[in-house]
Predict the 3D structure of the following.
Amino acid sequence: MKLNRFSTGSAIKDIQNGSTLSELKFKANESLSITSKGYQSVSKVPLVNEEGTDINERAYFIFSELFEMYAIDDPDEPGRKIMRIDEICDFIKGATKETCRKEDTRVLFIANFDSNGDGKLEKDDFIRFYR
């Protein structure tokens, strides 16, 4: 859904979700209009393979693309893509549209999937988080 201030037609942004009317500086008797954002329906696919033993190829592809969106080049090892605490936090912000701090329990939970303990998630670690 899309929320607009009726008087000005300006949209209330997704990142303002959870803000009070006072924080949004609404005036007395100001109205909202609600419209559909017009998202297209996305086909649903199972996350696990037919045997139920692992994620399927499509899910692996999607999670790999997510990793690539937020990963950076490892400054210590050229050619290696990694996610550190900052990138994990950016991933959570992008996925949830919520604020995220480095000490957020969600960040720390994902960071625990670092298989070699170097403070850097590689793609296999990120995929393992989803498994």
In short: The mean pLDDT is 84. Residues 2-35 form one domain.
